[in-house]
Amino acid sequence: MLKVKNLYKSFADRIVINGVSFSLEDGDIVGLVGPSGVGKSVLLKLLAKVIEPDDGEVVRMSGPVGRRMETYSVGFLFQESALFDSMTTLDNVSFPLLSSADNKNKISVPEAQDRAYKILTEVGLARAYDKLPGELSGGMRRRAGIARALVNHPELVLLDDPTGGLDPVAASVIMDLIAKLHAMYNPTIILVSHDIRRLLPRVNRVFGLFNGKIACDCAPGKLVDDAPEAVVKFLATRYDFGKQDSHDLQMMEQD
Which pTM was predicted? Predict the structure, then answer.
């Protein structure tokens, strides 16, 4: 279990994350939604320890007695994938296995490349292993980014808008791929997306981030009933809730 306790983060005089608390069970796949610029990417960076909070903590509780662990393994898909332009797809994906911070078990280059090639096969990029990012389509770059985020089988996977800017077909492929990899590896996943229609059927919880706070923590099928009105109105601009009730949403989850 991952426990987030009273996280705060400000930039200059603007409070972006304002006392955020929640718990994630192992294997959860959570959709994080909210208006643009509200701090969703900042929250992911805090969870990944890319940036430090002004206050609060993120800890992993491990084992039946709930032993606290200050560190935990993280895979991160940044917006637009953020691949290294001068590296091949294979080298990009194997990079986390060889970096000094992550290579605690002293994995050799051949072993890292073997593991990278295996997950590239799983995301359908085996034939593109030697291509540079500039030679890949947008959807292929996202798949490579997801492979890199998962290659070291992290406990927590953070996916920042993996379908942003993609056409509907490519976006559906990416969402299906995330569901497939979650079933295979069972990491805890937080998925930021504005693509509500494709997001809701693939997550078991939805967090709404509004005004720096978690405004709702609901199962997708309970959003209409349990989420605050402001959250439902926001989601309705991206998904037609108008004539649907929670039963319809529960049925949609099973489609």
Answer: 0.87
